[in-house]
Amino acid sequence: MNKHAVYFTAHRQIEIREESVPALQPGEILVQTLLSAISSGTECLIYQGLFPTDLRLDENLPGLTGTFAYPLKYGYSAVGRVLSLGAGVEKTWLNRLVFAFVPHQSHFITSVADVQPLPEDLAPEDAVFLPNMETAVNLVMDGAPIIGENITVFGQGVIGLLTTALLARFPMNSLVTLDPVPTRRQRSLQLGATASLAPNSPEADQVFSSLPRGGADLTFELSGSPVALDQAIQATGFAGRIVIGSWYGQKHANLDLGGRFHRNRLQMISSQVSSLAPGLSGRWDKARRFDLVWQMLRMIQPSQLITQRMPLDQAARAYQMLAEQPAEALQVVFTYD
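Request: output the structure for the sequence above.
Response:
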């Protein structure tokens, strides 16, 4: 049996390679992929060669081993159906829908311990957002919003929109989001933002200058653009917190730390979903966080954010569109026959 997989082979080069599927070992399952979602921020950096070559892919995910280097098989959001079972696997797994953190490929073999069974009341197109929702949940946990705060979110891609949807459920004073794409600003308002503005617009400057103590209490930088981090510093008020969820790859942030940052006692917090904040680990672990993520997927139903469904053989066109026409592609999902 053979499978088809997406490979990043060089700068802006994509190949669909055919590979043989090895025999199942005890405890393993063979899964046929139904959907896999592109993580546009990370995967666009890989597509454009902007990844750090000395960084491991993800030590916490068995499907992503090694370092960032071409040729590279990548991706970490797949939903599929279990086709066959290795020795020792309970028969109840057969034909079950499961989620796995694996690259874009038509079939994959993994252990039962490395998949998440889909809840029966959740559609596959919502479940494929599990990594993005887990990231959004982690961002909110790291930001620790307080009742009545003024909150700002830079970037309304998928992660930004899901974070906005979660924050909108808190009793805040205001939730202002910023993004250069009008359609994303409109989605942001639909998901609960009190205002959604273009970065560096006069309206945005007026909003931040009118807030108590000179700006937002809590700011999230989720745009993927280093320029936005400096803007986030300017938008945050005295003793405010800035949660940085963007991964910039090789792009460097040119920050003005001699003005507002120095005088205003700002906190910059790095947030990354691979681990839980040490202050939370006494009561939270990844299993508990996953339980919460499934609840939020049911509540928000993020399949509404899918803008393109494309067969795997159109992967090269998908990544070109994400790199060159990002305003037209919010969430691209690969489909598998």
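DSSP finds ten helices and 15 strands in the chain.
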